[in-house]
Prior knowledge:
Blueprint: H1 5-12, E1 18-22, H2 25-28, H3 34-38, H4 40-44, E2 51-53, H5 61-67, E3 72-77, H6 84-102, E4 106-110, H7 122-135, E5 138-141, H8 144-154, E6 161-163, H9 176-186, E7 197-201, H10 210-216, E8 223-227, H11 235-245, E9 251-254, H12 260-269, E10 272-274, H13 284-291, E11 296-299, E12 312-315, H14 318-330
Parallel strand pairs: 1-2, 1-3, 3-4, 4-5, 5-6, 7-8, 7-10, 8-9, 10-11, 11-12
Amino acid sequence: MTTLLHEEYRKLVPGVSTVYVFPKIKSSSLYNPYLTELYKDFLSAEKPAIACISPHPLAPVFIIKKLFGEKSIVHYHWLEFDNLKGLCVVIWKLLLLIIYKTFGGAIIWTIHDEAPHANRYLPFNLFFQKILVLITARFHVHCKTAAEMMAKKLIIPINRFFIVPHPLYTVTVIEKPAAKEYIRRHLIPQLAPGEPLFLCYGFIAAYKQIAEIARRFPEKKGQLVIAGHYKNGEKAYYETLCQEITGRNNIILYHHFLTPEKERYLCSAADYFVFNFRRILTSGSVILGLSYKKPVIVPAIGCLAELSGPMVFHFDTQEKLGEILREKCSG
């Protein structure tokens, strides 16, 4: 089931010349370069055998080209909404995809999440997902567990899935002592030099259960840095997190968007990455930690359960999470 993108493209449409990627690779990669890494071989080639184009997702360029006989595929990522504007955008995008399919177009959908992280309007999001299922030829996921989960949820034959693992990120690792010194000088002056640094990095949202990490983190050993800005609609959870860490000197909340340079130093300075997701298939933040060759502490769910090796520490209960944190802080 594990394969390469260009192989799947050619199997689906023999002689395919163009793949249209939505959303736009450049704008989507400002905070998460997943699409840039996934299509790296297509984008870096001087004359790729299959052109990888990422036009505006609301423009019907791919439909017009299809009408003129272009052998193309639409590769779609992320379909969800959590407000009225998002609903209108999803309806328009689906309308364009239905027209493209009607004219003989082939669609691949990468299923990133079991359900929208915002946890809003779930029945309506599921309804639109099932419409997309009806017009999609092949489904891309990052692991076998994700294929099995989504085949059952969306009632899709398992043989319509293919696996291309989540790509590692291209990173520049800085020596840990130099990185920690930079962090103390420029970002977090209260960072203690002698304590192991645990990093919870990424947007702040309820589904990440960061407050529970803080609750389980030892009071006198180790340091936990929670770095990232809260997502739209997650201000209440951010305030809950702030209350949880009040008075905790060894837990630092760095509530900012990080530039690539600051991210590089912070990730290089970490001794461990720690996450506490619920209801996810995979996580780019975990892959980022592994890209920096850092040990990751993660729940045994979705694709994270398939991670293995000496750099991965799994937990299946909140009590087990606490045990691992205490052990690593003391070690």
